Amino acid sequence: MKSLMFKKVYFFFSSLFIFLLHLPFVFAKTNPINKTTSTQSPQPVISTAVANTANVAANIYDSLRLGSLGLARQVFDYAMTGLTYMKEAGKVANENIISIVDFSKPSTQKRLYILDLKHYKVLFNTYVAHGMNSGQAFANNFSNIPESNQSSLGFYSTSGTYTGKNGYSMYLNGIEKGINDKAHERAIVMHGAPYVSEGMIRTKGYLGRSWGCPAVMEKLNKPIIDKIKNGTCLFIYSPNKNYLAHSAILKKRNYSSDIAYNN
Q1: How far apart (Å, rounded) are the C-alpha atoms in residues 109 and 153?
Q2: Looking at the predicted structure, is the pLDDT value of residue 175 above 60?
Q3: Would the CA dihedral through 245, 246, 252, 257 be positive or negative?
Q4: What is the mean pLDDT of residues 114-136?
Q5: For residue 176, which phi and psi values (nearest 5 degrees)?
Q6: Are residues 97 and 228 in contact, defined by beta-carbon separation less than 8 angstroms?
Q7: Could you report the per-residue pLDDT of 81-92, keeping only the tens digit for each?
Q8: pLDDT in tens, 215-239
Q9: Which DSSP helix (H) or strand (E) runs through 157?
Q10: Are strands 154-164 and 121-126 parallel, antiparallel or unpaired?
Q11: Residue 261's closest CA among 14, 99, 77, 119?
Q12: What is the rounded average pLDDT of the residues 61-75?
């Protein structure tokens, strides 16, 4: 009888102990699945495709040693963003060639880069002029207004050729509304000019200037135009805050660009 009573008492206290042991877990809140408990904002999820795009851009930039030629990675990435947009919008016929003019540099430096993205080649790295009212050695002022004699920033698609008062020349189609879309009205084209020369740099300390056209050296004019004509991407860059704030194309940059800068 005593043995039976002892077993009942033992079972009662054992059950009570187990109940008390699990009591905190009964009332504890369970965090919902996929909800972060961190006070920091969760990082965007990067798809494999986006990561691969960033990797391809990094490989091209590094393989061509563009940094050693003076082209900043951020400028290159802006250019690639625009090229991607132009491909999706059907505004380029040849996506393998891209031209970049870097107006963050003075005209005494070789600030035109023409790249073959398919074959990983720097086709040209040479001088290019800016508009006479954009500045002297540096291009600081930009306009889309006719007769302003200033350069216009942004993305262009190259077009056909003609022979005019500046010789063999190439039409440019400005594709950024309010920024460079009056290129035809302003007769903004690529052409050769005698004032784009190292002799002019030695004499004046800077290149001669155009009426807003990206003029190049006369001896390179035809080979450059023949390589980039008829539907390639041309990007004219400056760290101009107004342009960077209003370019609808650059606003399409995705998170992969920021990853690339931080790697």
Answers
A1: 18
A2: yes
A3: negative
A4: 98
A5: -105, 110
A6: yes
A7: 999 999 999 999
A8: 999 999 999 999 999 999 999 999 9
A9: strand 154-164
A10: unpaired
A11: 77
A12: 96
Closest among 244, 113, 90 to 173, alpha carbons compared: 90
Q: Identify the CA nearest to 176 among candidates 234, 99, 96.
A: 234
Please state, in angstroms and rounded to a whole number, the distance separating the CA atoms of residues 155 and 236: 6
120 exposure class (CB count in 10 Å sphere: 0-12, 13-18, 19+): exposed
Q: Is 2 exposed, middle or buried (0-12, 13-18, 19+ CB in 10 A)?
A: exposed
CA distance 78 to 93: 20
How many Å apart are CA 243 and CA 134, to the nearest integer? Answer: 14
**CA 108 – CA 191 distance, rounded (Å):** 18
Torsion sign, CA atoms 90, 92, 98, 103: negative
Q: What is the DSSP letter of 136?
A: S
Confidence of residue 11 (pLDDT cuts 50, 70, 90): low
pTM, entire model: 0.78
pLDDT at 94: 97
| AA identity, residue 124 | F
The answer to whether residue 10 scores a pLDDT higher than 70 is no
DSSP state of 131: B
Q: In angstroms, rounded to a whole number, what is the distance separating the alpha carbons of residues 239 and 165?
A: 32
Three-state secondary-structure class, residue 251: helix
Region 164-168: mean pLDDT is: 96
Helix ranges (H only) for the chain are 2-27, 48-63, 73-88, 198-204, 218-228, 241-246, 255-262
> At residue 56, what is the residue type?
V
